[in-house]
Amino acid sequence: MRTLWVKRTVPDNYIHPWFLSQLKRNEVVANYQYKKLLSDFSVLLLNMCNSVIFVLSFVAIYARNMKPQYFSLTAVILDILMAAKLFSEKSEAEALAALKSLSITVFSVMVLTPVFRSLTESTSSDSIWTLCGWLLVVNLLFCSRSLNPISINTSLAATIMLASRLTTSVDVFYFIMYNLQTFISVPAFYMWLRKNREMSAYNYALLGLTSLVSTILVSWLLGSSVLYIWILIQALVLFAVPRLFLALQRYKDRISGPWDAAVPILS
């Protein structure tokens, strides 16, 4: 601290060598590994694939008159496989608690289905498509390595709004249940697999299955030209973007000194 009215024998911009010796460069900057970044960016790819599956499944139901029961049945089979693996690692009390939550969710959706079906009757379809698009963008922006409440809420809002454009309550119920599995069950199971390193094979299998389903839907509903673009986007997100992120770390330059507040280092 300098007192301006006291005359000094050195210039105002004088810096003592002791001060310079205390400076440290990039002391708390994390060192990223490419393999770890691949695992982290796979979460973003999973959410992108889930969003594509969500949109294209609605297109198949709404425009191609496909029954949502087919999508829901596929999701139920996948849920049974995930639950069998999950409950084999959990205690009986945790398994019963999960089944209780599932029963409450199914009952709540069943009761509220008539409300959901008539929710947007006075709203134009163009407004619904636009709003759902922005909700999915927010969902992708807030996706993280854990289930982010904002990401979950925006995906649920988009699901309910699109479900309200279907014609029957049965279709609405099946569509909502199917997308609850898509946006909650699959990401939750994927997060759990990522925490268990010995289950990395199941982790990659689930990501590959999700990517395959989204690719098949893109090929079926949008054609081969969009299919190539979608495959390229997946490859860029999973392999090129982590490499770019790693390359940009060399430009990170942070100088810290004794005047800086302590920065906690979380292991």
Automatic annotation (TrEMBL):
First-listed, main subcellular location of the protein, grouped into a coarse class: membrane
Keywords: Glycosyltransferase, GPI-anchor biosynthesis, Membrane, Transferase, Transmembrane, Transmembrane helix
Membrane topology annotation: Multi-pass membrane protein
Any single GO CC term annotated in Swiss-Prot or TrEMBL for this entry: glycosylphosphatidylinositol-N-acetylglucosaminyltransferase (GPI-GnT) complex
Keyword presence, Electron transport: no
GO molecular function per UniProt: glycosyltransferase activity
This protein's pathway: Glycolipid biosynthesis; glycosylphosphatidylinositol-anchor biosynthesis
One GO BP: GPI anchor biosynthetic process
Localization (cell): Membrane
Record-annotated membrane-spanning stretches: 43-63, 172-192, 204-222, 228-246
Family statement: Belongs to the PIGC family.
PANTHER family: PHOSPHATIDYLINOSITOL GLYCAN, CLASS C, PHOSPHATIDYLINOSITOL N-ACETYLGLUCOSAMINYLTRANSFERASE SUBUNIT C
Protein name per Swiss-Prot or TrEMBL: Phosphatidylinositol N-acetylglucosaminyltransferase
Originating species: Starmerella bacillaris
